[in-house]
Design goal:
This protein folds into 5 domains: about 1-130, Immunoglobulin-like (Sandwich), CATH 2.60.40; about 130-255, Immunoglobulin-like; about 265-375, Immunoglobulin-like; about 380-505, Immunoglobulin-like (Sandwich); about 535-635, Immunoglobulin-like. The protein has 4 helices and 54 strands. A hairpin with a 6-residue loop joins β49 (about 585-590) and β50.
């Protein structure tokens, strides 16, 4: 808008610049997909790549959708105007049309965009009579690092016709930037070095006289020293002396080289026989050789902020760009292969008394390591069956986790259990199944290193053999029946360690399990193939009948065929949605050899999306209705409903398997 009158100003070119790149920003249209120009003209309509036209009121501009970040607005004003305005904000807010959105960015400053509601930035433009001296500044690089050089360009323009004498430019460098002696140029000519302030950041260039309606170009180079902080570095410049200009700004992004303030964390998850097994090197050369640990694939390693990494085929993992300080590294025990447990090889404060986690104190610019070792555990389930008089006791124990465990004791013939005597770990077991000849105890899920004791009392002391049958289901494994344990009379006890077949979970070795294969589907036939032809009518029984389409028929295309059986002298009428069918769709009639029966057909009868009402009327030669029927045929472009398909779904949320939810669209 006009900084003198408050009226809208058309014709100003506004460019949105990303400070991260120094280039025009990526802008999208209202749909979030179509690209939108990064340079627009105030008061002019804009068309995005999707063809949407954006019409704005006089003096307005817009950038519909941009990502979060830091930006600035570069403005090329129309003739007789200058940007940025020298007018004070209170004076602008007193103009007609106020209040205005005079914020960071209204005079070319940097501003930030955060997720949320849109922001508004009004741009005041000074008329030429009030413009006076205007200054703009740009940096030759968008991203720099310590040790690099940044070329700066300052353009000073005179909006008036009167020359300005004794003009100077006061420049303020960012922290850690230093002027390079001998680099100053004024309109390509070497000029004297500026006066430098005591802190090295303030520069004052003497330009001499700025001609009326003329301009000067000042260029110089600054070095980025070790004291420059990481992030945006803004430089400001202003013309002083014979006249005072606006404040020009230029920003660059100072990045960090060599990863000096961040750390890298690496490690391995390995299988070892003992803590004395030497650890393999990071290169993982020939893993699994004698004396070297074997890496375990598919184990999930987590950090305290929720970040997780899955080990590769050699058990290796790494996390980079970590902040210095204390971090927690922890194994997801649900991702460990069955038959393994953590080996406590380092008893120190780093583990906090838990083998599955470690504290690591990272320092910037360093490489730290956190390893985990697993050892195989016995995969057998220990069983002991004991008889003391009329009391029978059963002990079960296993080192690995089980999803389900059930035990069945086959009693001698005629033996009966005393009601209420079944105890599990000295507590009554109400869920025990009692029947003549057996006792069944379903123990449910059991943690690692579990043991349980089941006892019950018989009405009489057993005088014959008893058999124990145990069924288990390790985590991620199918259920399996163990070898039976027999207690032969007159022995008082029997014991065994029945092996449990364990295999690494599918997610740990081969990635997520695949869903059940889909059943073969019949191929979709787009155009109906009807059996109603001259051969069919020759063998057809007499009578009048609407043959096709039947109620419930679902066409694959918006056209169908229609077939009607009738006597040759009977005319047939077909209507679709209340209108007679197009005569061009009539295919003709065929008769049987005796000329007593006819078949009339239509092809490519048009349907509309949704429900279609088909009506067939058959009349006799006198015009009386012989057959009149209507059927509704639905044609759908998109699905009408969705049905969950349980057979093709994989509804497992065990932390290892990728769930699959199958939906059929009908």
């Amino acid at each position: 808008f006009d900084a003198a009158t408050g009226l809208p100003v058309n014709g100003a070119q506004v460019t949105l610049i990303s400070l991260a790149t120094g280039q025009p920003a990526a802008v999208l249209g209202n749909d979030g997909v179509s690209s939108y120009p990064a340079t627009v003209t105030s008061g002019a309509s804009v068309t995005d790549s999707g063809g949407t036209v954006y019409t704005v009121p006089p003096g307005r501009y817009q950038f519909p959708r941009i990502g979060p970040g830091s930006y600035r607005l570069a403005v090329t004003p129309p003739a007789n105007y200058a940007f940025a305005s020298l007018a004070a904000t209170p004076a602008l807010q007193a103009l007609p049309g106020a209040p205005f959105f005079i914020t960071g960015g209204s005079r070319g400053e940097a501003f930030s965009v955060l997720p949320g509601p849109p922001i508004e930035i009004d741009l005041p433009l000074d008329p030429s009579a009030a413009a006076g001296v205007q200054i703009s500044k740009s940096a030759g690089k968008a991203v720099v690092a310590v040790g690099e050089f940044v070329p700066y360009t300052i353009t000073i323009g005179n909006g008036g016709k009167t020359p300005v004498a004794a003009l100077r430019v006061a420049d303020r460098l960012p922290v850690g930037f230093r002027y390079q002696p001998g680099s100053a140029r004024l309109d390509q000519a070497v000029m004297a070095d500026p006066k430098v302030s005591a802190d090295g950041r303030g520069l004052e260039f003497s330009l001499g006289t700025l001609p009326g309606s003329g301009s000067l170009n000042l260029r110089y180079v600054a070095a980025v020293n070790a004291g420059a902080p990481i992030g945006q570095a803004e430089n400001t410049a202003q013309a002083i002396g014979g006249a005072t200009s606006n404040v020009a700004r230029a920003s660059v992004l100072v990045r960090e080289d060599l990863n000096r303030s961040r750390a890298i964390l690496v490690g391995r998850v390995t299988q070892v026989a003992s803590c004395e097994t030497p650890e393999n090197d990071l290169d993982g050369d020939m893993p699994g050789r004698a004396g070297q640990p074997l890496g375990l694939k598919g184990v999930r390693v987590m950090l305290q902020d929720g970040t997780y990494i899955v080990t590769d085929s050699e058990g290796r993992w790494h996390a980079d760009n970590l902040r210095p300080g204390t971090h927690v590294v922890q194994l997801d025990e649900t991702s460990l292969p069955a038959g393994f447990e953590l080996q406590a090889c380092e008893q120190s404060s780093r583990t906090g008394g838990r083998n599955f986690s470690q504290f690591v104190n990272l320092r910037g610019g360093t490489l730290w390591r956190a390893d985990f070792r697993l050892k195989p555990v016995a995969s057998c389930l220990r069983q002991q069956l004991q008889v003391q008089g009329r009391v029978v006791s059963l002990r079960l124990a296993a080192p690995v986790t089980h999803q389900a465990v059930s035990a069945t004791v086959m009693l001698p013939a005629g033996a009966r259990v005393v009601p209420g005597s079944v105890m599990l770990d000295a507590q009554p077991l109400a869920q025990a199944e009692l029947a003549d000849g057996f006792v069944v105890a379903r123990l449910g899920a059991q943690p690692a290193n579990w043991q349980r004791q089941l006892t019950f009392e018989l009405e009489t002391a057993p005088g014959a053999d008893m058999t124990l049958l145990v069924q288990v289901q390790p985590i991620g494994q199918p259920a399996q029946s163990l070898l039976p344990l027999q207690l032969k009379a007159p022995a008082a006890q029997a014991a065994q360690c029945a092996p449990v077949a364990l295999a690494p979970p599918a997610a740990a070795r081969a990635g997520p399990a695949a869903p059940a294969p889909a059943a073969p589907q019949a191929s979709v036939q787009l155009v109906e193939t009807l059996a109603y032809d001259d051969k069919w009518i020759a063998a057809a029984a007499p009578g009048t009948e609407w043959l096709h389409p039947q109620t419930g028929f679902v066409p694959a295309l918006p056209v169908i065929k229609v077939a009607v059986k009738h006597e040759p002298q009977q005319p047939v009428e077909l209507k679709v949605n209340g209108l007679p069918v197009n005569p061009l769709r009539y295919e003709g009639s065929v008769m049987n050899p005796a000329a007593t029966l006819a078949l009339t057909r239509w092809s490519a009868v048009d349907l509309r999306d949704g429900a279609n009402l088909l009506e067939v009327t058959v009349r006799d030669p006198q015009g009386q209705v012989v057959l009149q029927q209507s059927r509704t045929i639905h044609y759908a472009v998109g699905p009408a409903t969705a049905v969950f398909d349980a057979r093709r779904s994989q509804l497992v949320a065990d932390g290892r398997t990728a769930p699959v939810i199958a939906v059929r669209m009908l």
